[in-house]
Design goal:
Layout (H helix, E strand, L loop, with lengths): L1 H10 L9 E5 L4 H12 L3 E6 L4 H6 L3 E4 L5 H15 L4 E3 L11 H7 L7 H7 L2 H11 L7
Parallel strand pairs: 1-2, 1-4, 2-3
Length: 146
């Protein structure tokens, strides 16, 4: 077990995002915050996006914060535009923002929410895809090549 844990910890050094610009939604807490910290450790410039002011949290580990409610298409557009303005491009987007409640099942969610609402976040984020595709073309990246 200890050997497996040591190998897992060793993976940390194999993960590089050197010189990448990353936007992480829901980055003010939980999985998003842990991801943001890890991305900074891996060399990325990280912008965390969430509804509550997380400037102090972001700055504590070398990231920055832009306020955005990802349920609002105008705020998502502003997030992407502002990130591109500050950094010239966006290399990585982690769409981590969401909500949950202990004991809520998928059936409960579908019973109380409009099922079409689940495709809306994807459509909002699809708006940033053209910028990423252009950046990939300029870098000579095709398909899934790294």
């Amino acid at each position: 077990m200890r050997e497996n844990l040591a190998n897992f910890r060793g993976l940390k050094f194999m993960f590089s995002l050197k010189d990448k610009i990353a936007v992480i939604t829901g980055g003010g807490s939980g999985i998003g915050l842990a991801s943001a910290r890890r991305f900074v450790e891996a060399g990325a410039t990280v912008i965390i996006a969430c509804r509550s002011d997380s400037t102090e949290i972001a700055e504590s580990f070398g990231a920055s914060w832009i306020g955005a409610d990802v349920s609002n298409p105008d705020q998502v557009k502003n997030l992407m535009d502002e990130t591109a303005r500050r950094h010239g491009r966006i290399d990585v987007v982690v769409n981590n923002a969401g909500w949950g409640d202990v004991g809520v099942t998928i059936a409960d969610i579908f019973a109380y929410r409009d099922p079409s609402s689940f495709s809306r976040p994807f459509m909002r984020w699809a708006g940033c895809a053209p910028r990423q595709f252009r950046a990939a073309q300029r870098a000579g990246i095709n398909g899934n090549q790294h």
